[in-house]
Design brief:
With about 260 residues, this protein is an alpha/beta fold. The chain has seven helices and twelve strands. It has a single domain, classed as HUPs (Rossmann fold), CATH 3.40.50. Helix 2 crosses helix 5 and helix 3 crosses helix 4. Bound molecules: flavin-adenine dinucleotide (FAD).
Length: about 260
C-alpha cells in the first residue's frame, strides 16, 4: 500500500506571531515546526503501513525553504521518504493554490505506482480552516472521509469512525481515498534516537512547480481566488485583573467572581 501523508510547516504556536502589511502571517525569521495535528496523520499512516506490510509512506508538503523540517520530522517518526514542493511563485497561495500544488505532487508520486490513501491532519494550527482536505479530495477526484477518530483499511476499502455530538458514525469508501485524521485517532510516537539517525539518510525530493506541471499563474498571489481585505492584531485585554497572593487571594478571587455574578 502506498500512503501519502500531507504535513504542513507552521510557525511555532508558542512564539510571537505577527501579521505583515499584506495581512498574511509573517513566516520568516521565526521558528517553524511540523503542525502538531499532522503528527496524528503521520502516526495513522505508519500504523496502517505496518498492519498492511510491504507499504510505503511518503510525507508531502507544500511550503517555503524551512518546510523541509516538517517533512524531516515525519521521516524521524518513520515515514519512508519525503517530497516538498518549493517554488517562489507559491507565495501568497490560498487554499486553491496550495491544493493545486499538492494534487500535482500526489499525481507525480503516483506515476511510479498508484497511491492508495492520502492522509491529512484535521487542521493546520496557523490557518485553521480545515478546508484543505475536502478541497484536495475534490481536486484528486477521491472519496473523502473527514475527521476520523479511528481509521482502518481492509479488503480494498478504508473505514473510519467519526465522533459527533452524542453519536458516532462509521463510514467506508473504496481505495483510493482521502482521510483526515483527528487528534483522538492515536497517540503519535515520539521519534527515538534510531529514528532520528535513520531519517538523516532518507531522501526528500524537492520539486519546483515546473516539475509537477503546474502553471505558476495558477498558484500564489497571482492565482488566489480569495483576497485578504483587512486584518488587525487582537487588542490587548483591558479588563485584566492581576491578584497577587498575600494570603487573601482566594477571598478576593471569589469576591471578584461573585460581583460579576459568575458564581
Ligand atoms: C489570500 C491568501 C494568501 C495566503 N498566502 C499564504 C502564503 O503566502 N504562505 C502560506 O504558507 N500560506 C498562505 N495562505 C494560507 C494558505 O492558503 C493556507 O495555509 C492553506 O490553504 C491551507 O489552509 P489551512 O492552513 O487552513 O489548512 P487546513 O485546511 O486547516 O489543514 C488541514 C490539513 O491539510 C494539510 N495541509 C494544509 N496545508 C498544507 C501544506 N501547505 N502542505 C501539506 N499539507 C497541508 C495538513 O495535513 C493539515 O492538517 C494564504 C491564504 C490566503 C487566503
Amino acid at each position: 500500500m502506498k500512503i501519502v501523508v500531507c504535513v504542513k510547516f507552521v510557525p511555532d504556536i508558542q512564539a510571537d506571531r505577527r501579521l505583515g502589511q499584506d495581512g498574511r502571517v509573517v513566516r520568516d525569521g521565526g521558528d517553524g515546526t511540523l503542525n502538531e495535528l499532522d503528527e496524528n496523520a503521520v502516526e495513522a499512516a505508519l500504523a496502517l503501513a505496518e498492519a498492511a506490510g510491504d507499504s510505503e509512506v511518503v510525507a508531502l508538503t507544500v511550503g517555503p525553504a524551512g518546510a523541509e523540517d516538517a517533512v524531516r520530522r515525519a521521516l524521524q517518526m518513520g515515514a519512508d521518504r519525503g517530497v516538498q514542493v518549493l517554488d517562489d511563485a507559491l507565495a501568497g497561495s490560498d487554499v486553491f493554490g496550495t491544493v493545486t500544488a499538492l494534487a500535482a505532487a500526489v499525481r507525480r508520486i503516483a506515476a511510479d505506482g498508484p497511491v492508495d490513501l492520502v492522509l491529512t491532519g484535521m487542521a493546520a494550527l496557523d490557518g485553521l480552516t480545515s478546508l484543505l482536505p475536502a478541497a484536495l479530495a475534490a481536486e484528486l477526484d477521491l472519496p473523502q472521509l473527514t475527521l476520523a477518530a479511528e481509521v482502518a483499511v481492509e479488503d480494498g476499502a478504508v473505514r473510519i469512525r467519526r465522533e459527533l455530538d452524542g453519536a458516532s458514525e462509521t463510514l467506508a469508501a473504496p481505495l483510493p481515498a482521502l482521510v483526515s485524521v483527528t487528534d483522538q485517532a492515536n497517540a503519535p510516537r515520539y521519534p527515538n534516537f534510531k529514528g532520528i539517525m535513520a531519517a538523516r539518510k532518507k531522501p526528500i525530493q524537492v520539486l519546483a512547480l515546473a516539475d509537477v506541471g503546474v502553471d505558476p499563474a495558477a498558484v500564489g498571489a497571482a492565482g488566489a481566488r480569495t483576497r485578504i481585505v483587512g486584518s488587525s492584531p487582537r487588542p490587548p485585554r483591558e479588563d485584566r485583573v492581576l491578584i497577587t497572593d498575600d494570603g487573601t487571594a482566594g477571598t478576593r478571587l471569589a469576591q471578584y467572581l461573585a460581583e460579576r455574578k459568575l458564581v
